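Sat 14:20. Reprocessing the chain from the morning session after the first attempt stalled halfway. Input below, unchanged.
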Amino acid sequence: MNNELLHNTIITLRAIEPEDLDLFYKWENDTMYWEHGSTIVPFSRYALKQYIQATTQDVYETKQLRLMIEHVRDKVCLGTIDVSQIDFFHKRAEMGVFIDKHYQQKGFAVMAIQLLLEYLFSFLDLEQVYCHVPKNNISSQKMLLKTGFVCVGEKKHWIRKGNEFEDVLFFQKLK
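Finished this time. Tokens:
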């Protein structure tokens, strides 16, 4: 992987390392984040360790990629950026970004998305990237619009939140 492609003067998108286990354990088991993701049960250290080991597999085989967002100067992990549902025939993939609560609203997510899009469009030659965002998650919607995504639709009652269902907006960015 060409690191210059995944790097600017402030952040680097890097592969997951075994040393990231404690951070993953903290993030994946913090219920505050569960409503915005797909986690509904706690993860064990063992399960996360296996996941980290599996991330070394080829993106063409697994059809997914998770990168750590690391601050260049401080070497602190700010969050992760994920690509899943990679379809090399139709040249599209789903993207998700997570920023630790201590680093939100500082522009790191926008920078990470810009770096990732450059990689996906130029190196993997994808044609489009898409995201599902809960309708009430205004900050994520603004972040996507800032990076050139367009809201192209709405899915009704798409995610469950307690005993209610919530709509999501479908965002898309073309090459």
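The radius of gyration is 16 Å.
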